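quick one: nicotinamide-adenine-dinucleotide bound model?
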Amino acid sequence: MGLLEGKKALLTGSRRGIGAGIATLFAEHGADVGLNSPRPEPDEVAGRVIAAIEACGRRATWHPADVGDTAARERMFDEFLAAHGRIDILVNNAVTSDQMRSFFETDEEFWDFLMGHALKGYFFAAKRAASEMIRQGGGGRIINISSVHAYRAWPDDTVYGVIKAGLNRMVKSMAVDLAGTGITCNCIAPGYIDIRVLPPEEEPNRGREGWFDEAHAYIPSRRAGAPRHIAGAALFLASELGDYVNGETILVDGGLLSGGTPDDRRRREPRQ
Ligand SMILES: NC(=O)c1ccc[n+]([C@@H]2O[C@H](COP(=O)([O-])OP(=O)(O)OC[C@H]3O[C@@H](n4cnc5c(N)ncnc54)[C@H](O)[C@@H]3O)[C@@H](O)[C@H]2O)c1
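yep, here:
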């Protein structure tokens, strides 16, 4: 018996990486899953995720949307609800891969772009999900994927760090404002996660010492994390096991932040 038997979960940015890892573990535990990406149709990478979900005997549906676009995001929810009938779990996970800008290279366009989908988009997706959960009854789970960048600064991460710190704070307000609804709101803050798309036969090597750059040198667990490590925390929060965790952020970083500041050789003067 899975921990999420019969649950309906929508995950943003779930074509690959951490979102795909969570979607697959949720399906292994009995959930039907809605996948999201800005791509209109699933490509080969997404096809593998869908196949893994279907191999568990669960349903996978595809809901293309830029989560920073209000109309597209609302359409994503409409289509998911039409396909699945209800929503029990929302995982806000989508983010652009163009995340880093130096302080002086950060212009208003970049600020608005990142904030628009990765902070404002998360809030309004959570708001839509919560209103559906209240309407249908039975509570629900809202999980935002944050980052170790919420806690300390790396070069060029001002906007990204502000967003992730904002998400950690956002779930506290949501927990308070949604009190009594049975909906829990939490974040997971991953450390350094290896998100390369690998052929299935190479999966067992992921995160092995020496296999992925220098992660083993400065992470106490001596390796980069894998999407499944984040998925494990998401499964805990999404299931009955995490029922009494609310307004919290769970750090899943292999001890990365415990050891103080990792060495960063990219030292340079600010440029204007
Ligand atoms: N990989 C890491 O080391 C790491 C560390 C800390 C936090 N995170 C967080 O984990 C989450 C997932 O990141 P990942 O590492 O799996 O990256 P990823 O690039 O593999 O996944 C992000 C997905 O989001 C999609 N996406 C981008 N913009 C979108 C938009 N506007 N609307 C809908 N989908 C969009 C992308 O197409 C992609 O499939 C992010 O929130 C990221 O900040 C990752």
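Residues 12-13, 15-19, 36-38, 66-68, 93-97, 117, 145, 147, 190, 192-193, 195 surround nicotinamide-adenine-dinucleotide (CB under 6 Å).
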